[in-house]
Structures are given as C-alpha cells and as structure tokens.
C-alpha cells in the first residue's frame, strides 16, 4: 500500500487554487446520461472517484474524454442497462447513477452499495422516492432492479435531508411527466450545482439550496457545457493545515456562502478570514482557541466532511472541545490514530468525544481509516517534528487532487512512497 512520509514543523502558507468539488462532479457525471448527447464539464478534479465514474459511463456505452480538467461525455448510445457490481463496490456513491438511468431507460439494474467505513449508509430514502415517482423496485441477491412502469411527478417528503436521495430524485424527476415537489430536501451547495447543470441542459428545476425543490418534467434535454463549483471541503482542509502550522493562506476562487460554515469554526479557533474579490485570505491564530462544542449537521450547518480535520486542529488547542457527530454513526475512527500521535481524546458516547488540547503531537506510524480521517492525520503530521508515516492513502486520493504536490507547494516536506518494491527498483 502507498503511504506518505511527512517531516513536519514547516509553516503551510502561500497561494492556492482548488479545482471542482468531488461531491458535485460525481452527481453531475451521472446526469450526463440523461441528455442522450454531449456534455462538456470544466474544472473536473483529478481524483480516483472521478475515474470510477468514467469507467461506469464507459461500461454502459458512453464515450468519455478527460484531459486537463475538462471532461467530455457523449451519451448518445447506451449499450447496457446494468451497472457493473465491481464499480459500485469500489465507490458507494455510484448509486447516484440509478436515478439518471431510470430517468433515461425503462429498466436498470445496479448492485446494492452496502455500507462503508463511516456507517451503514442505507438507501431507503432513495428507493422510496423512486417508488413515489412510479418506479417499480425489486431487490434481491444484493441487486436493485428498477422498472419504469411509469415516471410521474409526485410529492416527496424526506424524513432526513439526505444529499444522495435528493440528487437521485432530481435526476429521475427531470424527465418525469408533471411536477415533482421535494420537501425537506438537502441544501448542500453541490445540490445547487447539480440544478445549474440540469437546467443548462434544458431541465426545469427550482429551489436547490433551500429545503423545497420543484422539478417540472421535460421531454428532451440537450447538449451542455458547465464549470463545476470549487471544492469547499478541500479548501477547508488546506485552511486547517495553515491554521495548525501558523501559516497565512490565500485561496483563489471561493464561493463565500459555501465556505461560511467552515470559516465560522476557524474564526472561533482564532483565525482571521477575509474574503477579497472571489478569494479569501486567512491568517492563523496566535494561540489555537478551543471550541466548546462542534456539532456536525446538514448544510448550512458545520459539515461532517470537515469534522476530522477540525479535530486535528483542536488537538493542539488551549483547552477542551466536545465533538458531536450527528450525520454518520461511525465517523470517529481517526480518533484512535490521532491518539497514537499524542492527541488527548476521550469518548463520551459512540458519536460524542472530548478532546483536550496538548502542546505538541509526536510522530508515529498511522493508518488512514477513511477519506477525511486520512486528511486529518496528514494535517496533524505537518505539525510534528520528526518523520510521521501515514498509510492507506488510497482513501485520501479518492477526494484530494495531488495533495502531496499541493502541500509541498505550500512548504510541506511530504513524500509519497508508492510501494517499497518499486522504490528499490528505481
Ligand atoms: C454525501 O453522502 C457526501 N458524498 C458525503 O461526503 C457527505 O458526508 C454526506 O453527503 C453528508 O453531507 C457525496 O456527495 C458523494 P446522505 P450521502 O445521504 O449522499 C442517512 C466525503 O467525505 N441516510 O446525506 O451518502 C445516512 O446513513 C463523503 O466526501 C439514510 O438513512 O449522504 C447518513 O447517516 C462522505 N437513508 C445520513 O442519512 C438514505 O436513504 C446522511 O446521508 C440516505 C441516507
């Protein structure tokens, strides 16, 4: 397995521009299935999840070209109605393809995504919404078969503002007969970006960004060109890297309302954040202030995808912080690894923990438990004198484009060790 070795102690500082959001490009790639034509998408991040989605599209007959951040998809011809189990197992968010497939075809079959490291991640809300739209669903042997007996606009009231269920419903409803009304929809910025993409191809979606979304079905969609929004979570991760190491960071191309839930917490930790033009400038805290309570919640609350990174920052604060993870039931696996680096963390319950800041962390060998947990360990390692080893970095590369080069360009001493055999060979 590849790993990073990191010699910490340098300030992480300078100027940064981050490409498109992972959690925006994945549903947008799925949406390219709907227009039976060409989609040109710019600002596409070079991350492994994007390659999995490209493989899925190619496996059903789409022609795909990805070069220098631009993805061109031609979905004129679809040759298969079934999504290969291999891809769904590799990346559970590929379940998002289901809504687009049934929006376009009379039938589709996809493997059940199952859970992942951070939780059981059921898809009941996705399936119930498709059933509301008239799709007949059969589940057996770990597969989901969707039959489009009819696809008619309907009223959907989500028990929980699930991001994925909202997106899957939007993808299916754009070509339904009549109007679909979604109540208690997710409000994440990535939902707004999906709406913009769909409307640019001729759909009629309104209300994304609020908890009420209305979709008026259309017969046909057309060619489209779109630029993906910047990745607020990747930007937030680098801001924490600078805050932890005492560096100043300038970030080009940010969308202020997308960043505010993250900036708000970093200000509470003592950072100064100014938005200038369409960028931001962050100056680090003189002393990292403890934040009494960090509770994750759906947007515009504090994002669960920043919880682990903020916990790394609080590991070096001047007091005690309590973290309450409300979105996923198993998203504290980085705690044990941070403790190996010298953090002082105590569990209160399985999704509430208390972290008492320490003066310094110390080096050790740690394993990335998942995407954001891995990022948090890298951030902690940047503050540690001596060499820290972070392994299982395939998790991190799913969601961060060239994190090694980016951190090095900001002053980090970080090296990727592909695997020992190869290194010896070179
Ligand atoms: C999206 O996951 C993101 N992934 C996640 O980012 C993010 O953490 C999450 O939204 C919350 O913001 C992508 O966009 C690809 P949910 P998603 O449906 O859609 C429960 C990262 O690190 N639920 O809003 O799967 C579910 O179990 C990743 O980039 C049901 O119970 O999230 C969870 O507890 C991790 N039934 C909660 O809702 C359902 O049918 C939130 O899930 C659907 C969800």
List the helices and strands and how they pair.
Layout (H helix, E strand, L loop, with lengths): L2 E5 L6 E4 L4 H10 L6 E5 L5 H12 L3 E5 L2 E5 L7 E2 L1 H6 L6 H8 L2 E5 L12 H9 L3 E5 L2 E5 L7 E3 L5 H11 L5 E5 L5 H12 L3 E3 L5 E5 L7 E4 L4 H14 L3 E4 L3 H13 L3 E5 L2 E5 L9 E3 L11 H8 L5 E5 L9 H7 L3 E6 L2 E5 L8 E3 L3 H11 L5 E5 L2 H4 L5 H7 L3 E5 L2 H6 L1
Parallel strand pairs: 2-15, 3-14, 6-7, 10-11, 18-19, 22-23
Antiparallel strand pairs: 1-23, 1-24, 3-5, 4-5, 7-9, 8-9, 11-13, 12-13, 15-17, 16-17, 19-21, 20-21
Helix pairs in contact: 1-2, 1-7, 4-6, 5-6, 6-7, 8-9, 8-10, 8-12, 10-12, 11-12
The protein binds ligand EPZ.
Strand content: 25-35%
Largest sheet: 4 strands, mixed
Q: How many angstroms does the end-to-end distance come to?
A: 17 Å
Beta strand count: 24
Structural class: alpha/beta
Overview of this protein structure:
This protein has 426 residues and is of the alpha/beta class. The chain is 32% helix and 25% strand. It contains 15 helices and 24 strands. The strands form six sheets. It has a four-stranded mixed β-sheet with strand order 22-23-1-24, covered by helices on one side. A four-stranded mixed β-sheet has the order 2-15-17-16, with helices on one face. Strand 12 and strand 13 form a beta hairpin. It is globular, with a radius of gyration of 22 Å. The model is unreliable at 422-426 (pLDDT under 50). It binds ligand EPZ. Residues 22-23, 26, 93, 119, 121-126, 160, 162-165, 186, 304-305, 327-328, 371-372, 399 line the site of ligand EPZ.
């Amino acid at each position: 397995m590849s790993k990073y070795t990191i010699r910490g102690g340098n300030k992480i500082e300078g100027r940064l521009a981050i490409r498109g959001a992972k959690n925006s490009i994945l549903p947008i790639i799925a949406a390219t299935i709907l227009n039976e034509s060409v989609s040109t998408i710019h600002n596409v991040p070079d991350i492994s999840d994007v390659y999995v989605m490209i493989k899925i599209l190619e496996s059903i007959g789409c022609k795909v070209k990805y070069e220098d951040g631009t993805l061109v998809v031609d979905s004129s011809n679809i040759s298969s109605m079934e999504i290969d189990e291999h891809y769904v197992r590799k990346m559970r968010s590929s379940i998002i393809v289901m809504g687009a497939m049934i929006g376009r075809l009379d039938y589709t079959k996809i493997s059940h995504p199952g859970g992942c490291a951070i939780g059981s991640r059921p898809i009941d809300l996705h399936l119930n919404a498709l059933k509301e739209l008239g799709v007949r669903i059969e589940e057996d042997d770990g597969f989901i078969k969707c039959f489009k007996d009819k696809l008619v606009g309907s009223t959907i009231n989500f028990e929980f503002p699930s991001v994925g269920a909202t997106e899957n419903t939007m993808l299916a409803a754009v070509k339904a007969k009549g109007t679909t009304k979604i109540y208690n929809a997710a409000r994440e910025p990535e939902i707004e970006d999906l709406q913009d993409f769909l409307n640019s191809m001729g759909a009629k979606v309104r209300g994304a960004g609020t908890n009420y979304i209305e979709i008026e079905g259309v017969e046909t969609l057309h060619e489209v060109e779109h630029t993906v929004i910047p990745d607020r979570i990747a930007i937030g991760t680098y801001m924490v890297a600078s805050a932890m190491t005492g560096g100043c960071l300038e970030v080009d191309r940010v969308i202020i309302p997308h960043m505010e839930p993250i900036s708000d917490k970093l200000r509470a930790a003592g950072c100064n954040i100014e938005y200038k033009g369409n960028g931001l400038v962050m100056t680090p805290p003189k002393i990292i202030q403890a934040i009494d309570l960090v509770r994750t919640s759906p947007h515009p609350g504090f994002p669960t995808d920043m919880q682990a990174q903020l916990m790394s920052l609080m590991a070096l604060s001047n007091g005690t912080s309590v973290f309450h993870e409300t979105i996923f039931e198993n998203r504290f696996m980085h705690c044990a690894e941070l403790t190996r680096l010298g953090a002082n963390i105590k569990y209160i319950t399985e999704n509430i923990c208390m972290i008492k800041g320490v003066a310094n962390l110390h080096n050790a060998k740690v394993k990335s438990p998942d995407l954001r947990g891995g990022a948090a360990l890298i951030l902690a390692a940047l503050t540690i004198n001596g060499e820290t080893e972070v392994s299982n970095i395939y998790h991190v590369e799913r969601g961060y484009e060239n994190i090694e080069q980016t951190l090095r360009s900001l002053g980090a001493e970080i090296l990727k060790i592909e695997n020992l055999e190869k290194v010896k060979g070179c």
